[in-house]
Structures are given as structure tokens and as C-alpha cells.
Amino acid sequence: MTGIGRWLAWPLEPLHLSCCLLVLALLAFALRRRRGALALIGISLAWSLLWSLPAASNALRNSLALRYPPQSAQGLPTVDAIVVLGGGIGSVAWFEQGDPNDPRLAGNRVALGARAWHDGRAPWVLLSGGPTPRTHGVSEAREMAAAMHALGVPERALVLDERSRSTGDNARNSAQWARTHGWRRVALVTSSLHMSRARALFERQGLQVLPLASAEKDFEPVPKHGAASPWWPTRRALRRSGEAFKEYAGLLAAKLGVGG
Fold first, then answer.
1. How many CA atoms lie within 13 A of 173 on its CB side?
2. pTM, whole model, 2 decimals?
3. Which residues pair with 211 in a beta bridge?
4. pLDDT tens for residues 203-219?
5. Residue 134 burial (C-beta neighbours within 10 Å; 0-12, 13-18, 19+)
6. CB atoms < 10 A from the CB of 86, how many?
7. Which residues pair with 213 in a beta bridge?
8. Cα separations (Å) of 243 from 15, 147, 157, 211?
9. Cα dihedral sign for 16, 18, 22, 25?
10. How many CB atoms lie within 10 A of CB 61?
11. Are 197 and 254 in contact (CB under 8 A)?
12. How many CB atoms lie within 10 A of CB 225?
């Protein structure tokens, strides 16, 4: 995410907003506004506590993810290209068997793109993702290409966008490739959580988008009997809530046409 979207996302993340409120509380104390300061402290703590609850975090993420539930490539109409966005690539070992239907790959976006290609949904697969700290200088597109090869997709069917560092870049660079190759309609493969923002940005670039969402693998499970309660705060739930707020901020920026 870049530009306005980043500025919108920063204060919405629970810890960031709580810190801002605490700073305002200190200012209120300095101005001898004791009641106001105590109210700000209470709101600050309550805000972070709320979004650290797994139940609240799951509900927030589902408000986005359930708009695009995971689906099979078999029901997808024919398109000009399949665009797979970086992120959620998974372990290299998962692809070694060369089977895109391996149960370990059930929610993997690379495997979903490979299944769509094998099903004859499109002749091309565009892999979009630049270098990240995790990949140590190697682009996500190249990592995905290696996985696609292992899953039986030939190199001749792959187009690599190795320059994208944000979803906005994904959309802009994909649109450039589409104009070069004469593509109009693409199947967009990304996670359910990310699909709303990604689709808005791709459509803003003039592409016709058919969403092909992968399952959200990083889901906070509802604890079983005897385990921690979904109403017990965790750092993981707080982080996941921040990710969902980031998606909402990016979606708003995309709808306003001011960010990527």
C-alpha cells in the first residue's frame, strides 16, 4: 500500500490509535483536563483490548473475506489471463510432489492459479510480485514461477511482473501487460481478505476482473473445549485486526481513486 492509503491505514491500526489517544491524554493532563485525560486513557485501552480478542478479530476479517468466499477454478468462465498476486506462496516443499490438488495446497493461491490453467481457463498466467525482505532480493514472481513449473505449468505460459511492490503496482503493471498482449478480461487470484481492495484497483485500471479467491489460511481458530477462550486477548488477534483495518483503508483509498 502506498500514498493516501498508507496514511489512512496508520491511525486505524489498533495500537497506533491507542498510542495517539494516550498522547492526547498526556496533553489533557498537562492542561489540567483530568476527566478528559482519564476518558482518553480508558478509550485507548478498550480499543486495543477489543481488537485483541480472537472473536472480534475474526468478525472484522470475515466482514471482508466473506464477500469473496474461496471457490473452485472449474466454475470459472474462460478469460484472457490468470493474474496471481504475490503473498501466501507457502513452503517450497509443498510443491515438490508436483500435484496442484495436494491437500496441503488447498488454500494456496499459486496452486489455485495452476489448477485454473490446467482446467483451460486461460492460456496465460501473469505472476505479479517484486522483491521483499522475506525473499532476500528474489522477486515473488520468480518464486511463484518455480512453484508453477513444479505444478506442471510450462514456462511459455508464464508472464512475470517482478517490479510490483504494492497492490497498486500489481494493478498498473498488469494493465500494461494486458494492453501489450490484448487482454481484456482476467481472473484475479488473491486471498479472500485482499480481494475487495485488489479488485477495485484492477478495475480502476480498466480491466474486467473475475475474482478467484483463495482461502484465508492464516485464520484464528475458535478454541476447542479446554483451550483459551475466543474472548481472551492475544497479540496475534491484535495483529490480524490491524491487517483487516489496513485492507479497509486501502479499499477506501481505491474507491476514492487516491491510493494503491
1. 21
2. 0.87
3. 188
4. 999 999 999 999 865 44
5. exposed
6. 26
7. 190
8. 12, 26, 33, 20
9. positive
10. 22
11. yes
12. 4
